[in-house]
Write a structure and sequence with these properties.
Layout lengths: L2 H10 L5 H75 L1
Length: 93
Amino acid sequence: MTGTDVATTLASSGTNFTPIGIIAVIFIPLSAAIAVSVWSYFRLQSHRADAVAMAAYRKLAEEAVANMTELRAEMAKLARHVSVVEQLMRDVG
């Protein structure tokens, strides 16, 4: 039985494909639109979560830079004190 024989048999049996076609034409694009909308929503939520995490990371990085600047200043001060103590020990010794 070929494809045309099947179509002829179905058509001769009185099967009306118009309602099935209309439902398919409405249902398939509607389902695709809903699926794309749900996918886009969850992708947006993922990007929002990433943006929040990135903002927290930026804040942490800025705090780390500020702390390192303070630490360098204190290290320089300590190095000056150590050099003074070393000089004093050379003078005494």
